[in-house]
Backbone:
């Protein structure tokens, strides 16, 4: 089998950069470059600076690199190393956004109720989700590395990619269901739930698109077109990162800090009252 025919069978997300990819790739590069001041703004303001902002920041940096690389690849001949790099840069950002969404879900619950009132299954489910997400990312990276071989195992590569996408879909769906369940049972803030559900919906769209593409053998199907990639993947990612950078995470999802501060304040007041009563009795 020729190298070209082998690559065609891989059917990876986005397709191989050609001349038609130059303009859209350049546009998305400029969009992400324009987000850099927003990222800096978030990090320089104490009200929005937090650990949960690390992955969105990495996402913007990687997407700038991936779309610049894709822009260059659309106009020049490239080797196997460049090809593998483009595939890896394409795969990793999904992990960053999904992992951040899971983290915000935990913060959302911790913001609304005390530790004692949180569902016992929440932390366990979130840990399993993070592990599943990591496994999916590793499978995607491994399949990308294998794609650059002189005689790539197409069947194994495609099986790894399919498994990666299916695990990712399971993580997204369970997160969506978990957010709804916690919101209904615990009466959490609606604004936070809407943000989380919006993130899950966008991730669901990109994952379903990837699954539909990798399982579609018809090369002429719309889902395998470049328009589908830029609309159902690239544009949706811009919306997702826009949501994350458009909010002050510590304000909307303060986590356990606010709840624990209130509990300590209540305990302090009770202690003060008890000591005052004891002094009056004495």
Residues:
């Amino acid at each position: 089998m020729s190298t070209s025919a082998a690559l065609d069978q891989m059917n990876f997300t986005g397709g191989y950069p050609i001349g038609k990819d130059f303009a859209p790739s350049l546009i998305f590069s400029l969009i992400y470059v324009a987000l850099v001041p927003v990222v800096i703004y978030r990090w320089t303001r104490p009200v929005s600076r937090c650990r949960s902002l690390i992955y969105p920041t990495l996402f913007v940096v990687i997407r700038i690199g991936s779309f610049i690389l894709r822009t260059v690849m659309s106009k020049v001949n490239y080797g196997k190393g460049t090809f593998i790099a483009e595939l890896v840069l394409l795969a990793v950002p999904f992990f960053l956004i999904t992992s951040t969404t899971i983290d915000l879900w935990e913060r959302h619950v911790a913001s609304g109720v005390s530790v004692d009132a949180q569902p016992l299954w929440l932390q366990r489910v979130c840990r399993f989700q993070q592990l599943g997400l990591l496994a999916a990312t590793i499978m995607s990276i491994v399949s990308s590395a294998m794609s650059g071989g002189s005689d790539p195992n197409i069947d194994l590569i495609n099986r790894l990619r399919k498994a990666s996408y299916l695990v990712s879909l399971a993580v997204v769906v369970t997160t969506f269901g978990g957010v709804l369940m916690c919101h209904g049972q615990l009466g959490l803030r609606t604004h936070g739930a809407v943000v989380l559900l919006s993130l899950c919906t966008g991730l669901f769209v990109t994952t379903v698109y990837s699954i539909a593409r990798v399982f579609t053998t018809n090369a002429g199907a719309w889902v395998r077109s470049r328009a589908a990639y830029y609309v159902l993947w690239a544009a949706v990612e811009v919306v997702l990162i826009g949501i994350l950078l458009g909010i002050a995470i510590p304000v909307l999802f303060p986590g356990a800090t606010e709840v624990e501060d209130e509990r300590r304040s209540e305990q302090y007041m009770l202690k003060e009252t008890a000591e005052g009563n004891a002094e009056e009795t004495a």
Q: What stands out?
A: Confidence is low (pLDDT under 50) at residues 258-268.
